[in-house]
Design goal:
Blueprint (H helix, E strand, L loop, with lengths): L2 E5 L3 H10 L4 E6 L10 E4 L4 E4 L5 E2 L3 H10 L5 E2 L5 E6 L4 E6 L25 H7 L7 H4 L4 H15 L8 H10 L10 E4 L3 H15 L3 E4 L5 E5 L2 E6 L4 E3 L5 E4 L3 H7 L9 E10 L8 H6 L1 E5 L5 E4 L3 E6 L10 H16 L14 E11 L3 H5 L11 E3 L12 H14 L11
Parallel strand pairs: 1-2, 1-14, 2-10, 7-16, 14-20
Antiparallel strand pairs: 3-4, 5-9, 6-9, 7-8, 11-12, 12-13, 15-18, 15-19, 16-17, 17-18
Helix pairs in contact: 1-7, 1-12, 2-12, 3-6
The structure holds flavin-adenine dinucleotide.
């Protein structure tokens, strides 16, 4: 039986490991103290509770993610309204509404006052087909038409999906998301999130599964270099040992782009990054939301700093994407400003308003949250195959056709498995 060494225990590496474990001997090397990478939970000392490094929103149109969860028996660890509803608030205009997509492909929701974006015109919807037809050079802003459909839906969708400003973000990548979601109808757009934490949904079940398949997971183990000979990887080095590879053995490199570029001679990858900031506020009693906020468990905001707010039992968490623009803001100022916006948006939708003063809070800035999803960076993304016969690449930064997402990471793990000649569920696998 061949032995596959997987370097990197983020969701791309875990996806590859889970796929391979029934077919090969697997060893996974993770530099950090636990797996999960950029999608992980941890106990925060300051807030004295478990939080996620950042809120992650999934949509029902994420086939590889749901397959991964089903394989691990972990689908039940997600929560969501079970229908395509998105409560919104416009901080500039003091206006709240709920987007209620119709489930089928025919977008009846565009016609109803209570279902569509307030103030939009039907002409603006043309932007969706412009995005889906966009060429590789086009930016999102080139495809949008001025109006509230753009300002209140497509711009926030773009900035959260691409984590890049619309003037620089790739229209092709956003067009791919539109094709898989809005164009397929509301049933492809149901929002889902981890009910108790990212690790509980994506990592712990994978660890259990890998253990049951006798796969080896080595946390706290950084791979520092690889040795190559005759067009193959022949060994990998960790600080404590050299692992020699047999003739049938292979490697999947599932580390972030700059690490992979440092380990694989001649490899190029994305080299510009965007940050995401998450503000976590500790609550001393659970909120009691009403109406659509209660149904959805989250809300989108436009016109302010906060972009998405997620209601957890003990914590209110807010996401700010493309956050390089706030690099100069002091954390306290960000936390105060966001808290003021939360008062404005949430108080009318809660049985009891939020506490006046900012509660204990924590701002986490993931400086390299994703590669910058610009047309230039998109061109730098390599496929899974490399110049070395027994080495494949995985990671959200490889050429998945998607921006940096959980779906892209999980898909990339499957593609890497296929590139090495193993069985895989990826429909387009090589
Ligand atoms: C704050 C935030 C919010 C996000 N929100 C969303 C969202 O709402 N929806 C969504 O779909 N996606 C979201 N994403 C993106 C998503 O988290 C990523 O696309 C995905 O987790 C990337 O997984 P990966 O395995 O490709 O990379 P990573 O998670 O970066 O995994 C790489 C792993 O390799 C390890 N490693 C590095 N060097 C070595 C080495 N030399 N040896 C061994 N191990 C090594 C790292 O420690 C890491 O665990 C968000 C990301 C962030 C940061």
């Amino acid at each position: 039986m061949s032995h596959v060494h997987i370097i990197g225990g983020g969701l791309a590496g875990l996806s590859a490991a889970v796929e391979l474990a029934p077919q090969a001997q697997v060893t996974l090397y993770e530099a950090g103290p636990a797996c999960g990478g950029r999608a992980r939970s941890f106990h925060d000392k300051a807030l004295d509770t478990v939080i996620d490094n950042g809120n992650h929103l999934l949509l029902s149109a994420n086939p590889y993610t749901f397959r991964y969860l089903d394989l691990l028996g972990a689908r039940e660890t997600l929560r969501g309204p079970g229908k395509p509803i998105f409560p919104w608030y416009d901080v500039e205009k003091y206006l709240s509404w709920t987007l209620r997509l119709s489930s089928g492909r025919i977008p009846f929701w565009l016609l109803g006052r209570g279902t569509r974006v307030p103030g939009m015109t039907l002409k603006e919807v043309m932007a969706l087909s412009r995005l889906m037809k966009a060429d590789e050079q086009a930016c999102v802003a080139d495809c949008l038409l001025p109006g509230e459909f753009s300002r209140r839906l497509l711009e926030p969708l773009a900035i959260s999906a691409l984590n890049t400003d619309i003037k620089r973000g790739s229209a092709r990548l956003l067009g791919n998301i539109v094709r898989q979601t809005l164009a397929k109808g509301g049933s492809a757009c149901c929002p889902w999130m981890a009910a108790h934490g990212l690790s509980e949904s994506f990592v712990t079940p994978a660890m259990r599964y890998l253990e049951s398949c006798h796969a080896e997971v080595l946390t706290g183990t950084r791979v520092s270099s690889l040795r190559y000979e005759g067009g193959r990887v022949i060994a990998l080095e960790t600080p404590s040992r050299t692992v020699a590879l047999g003739a049938e053995d292979a490697v999947i490199m599932a580390v972030p782009s700059p690490v992979a570029v440092g380990l694989v001679p001649g490899l190029e990858g994305p080299d510009e990054f965007e940050s995401i900031a998450n503000a976590h506020y500790r609550l001393h009693q659970p909120l009691q939301p009403r109406g659509a906020l209660r149904e959805a468990g989250f809300m989108g905001l436009v016109g302010g700093v906060a972009e998405w707010v997620f209601l957890h039992d003990e914590v209110l968490s807010v996401t700010v994407s493309a956050a390089n623009r706030y690099a100069d803001w002091r954390n306290e100022d960000m936390l105060e400003r966001i808290w003021a916006e939360l008062h404005q948006a949430l108080d009318p939708l809660l049985e009891y308003p939020l506490p006046e003063a900012v509660p204990e809070a924590r701002l986490i800035r993931e400086k390299r949250a994703t590669f910058a999803a610009t047309p230039e960076q998109d061109k730098k993304r390599p496929g899974a195959r490399t110049a070395y016969a027994n080495l494949a690449l995985a990671g959200d930064w490889t050429d998945t056709g998607l921006p940096s997402t959980i779906e892209g990471a999980i898909q990339s793990g499957l593609v890497a498995v296929g590139a090495l000649g193993f069985r895989t569920a990826f429909a387009g696998a090589e």
